[in-house]
Amino acid sequence: MSEPKTENWTTVITPKNKLLRLNLRELWQYRDLVTSFVKRDITSVYKQTILGPLWFFIQPIFTTLMFMLVFGNIAKIPTDGVPQILFYMNGIILWNYFSTCLTSTSNTFVNNAYIFKKVYFSRLALPVSQVISALLRFAIQFSLFLIMLAVYWFIGSPVSPSLAIFAIPLFVLQMAMLGLGVGLIVTSLTTKYRDMAYLVTFAVQLWMYATPIVYPLSMVPEKWRSLYMLNPVVPVLEGFKHAFFSTGMPGFAEYAVSVGITLFLLVTGILIFNLVERNFVDTV
C-alpha cells in the first residue's frame, strides 16, 4: 500500500494574531503587484484627457499663479523676501504630495473592496502603491520647481540654498509616512462610517490653511507659535523652505515633536488597519 503524497504549499494564509504586524517580507513578495498598481494609478488618472501628463505641470503652475494673485497682490501677504512664485510653489508641491498620500490611501478599502473579495494579497500593497505613485507626481513637480529656482538664481535673485538641502529626502519620507498613517486611520473608519470620506476633503482644506503655505511662519503671533508648531507638517515644510531659501530651520525639539507625532499616527494607522482588515469585507 502506497503512502499518501504530501503537498508542499508555497503560500499558507493564516489569521493574523498580532495587530502590529507590518510583514515587510510579504509585501516584498508582492512587489510586482505594487508596480502594477503604480502604473494603473498613473495611467488611469489622465488616460482620457486632452492634455494627459501635462496636468502634472499645469496644476501646480495655476495654483501658484492664483496664490500670487490672491494672497500676494490682493491680500499683500509678505513672503519674507522670497520671490512669490518660488515661495508658493515650494509649499504647494510638498503639500500636494502629503494631501495626495492622505486622500488616496483614505479610500483604500472602499474603492478596492471588489479586489479584496476575490483574491488574497498583502493589503498594504495598495496604500503603499498609492504613496509611490504620488511620489512620482511629486518628482515631476519638484523638477519644475528646480527649473524655476535655477532661473531666479541665474538672473541674480537673492536665493541661497542651505545645507538642509541634503535633508530633503528625509522631509519627503516624513510626509509620506504622515500621509500614509492618517490615510490608514481614515480608510479603516470609512468601512463603517462612509461620511468620513466627505470629512477628509474638508479637513485637508482646513489643514492646509493651518500650515504656512500661503503665508510665512513669521506672521503667526509668538504666543501661539508653540501650539502652532504641534501641526506635524509645519516643521517639515519650514525645513523644506530653509533648504532652498535659508529662511530659518525649526529647533530640534520642534522637529522631534513632529517626528514623534508622525510615528505615532503611522503606528496607530497600522494597528487600526490590521484590526479592520480581519472582517472589513462584511461591512464594506
Q: Which features characterize this protein?
A:
single chain, 284 residues, mainly alpha, 65% helix, globular
What's the gist of this structure?
It contains twelve helices and no strands. It is an all-alpha fold.
Structure, described:
This protein is mainly alpha-helical. The protein has one domain (24-277). Helix content is 65%, strand content 0%. It has helices at 24-29, 31-45, 55-74, 84-105, 108-111, 113-116, 125-154, 168-190, 196-209, 222-228, 233-245, 252-277.
Distance between the termini: 51 Å
Mean pLDDT: 83
Total helices: the number is 12
Oligomer designation: single chain
Topology:
Elements: H1 24-29, H2 31-45, H3 55-74, H4 84-105, H5 108-111, H6 113-116, H7 125-154, H8 168-190, H9 196-209, H10 222-228, H11 233-245, H12 252-277
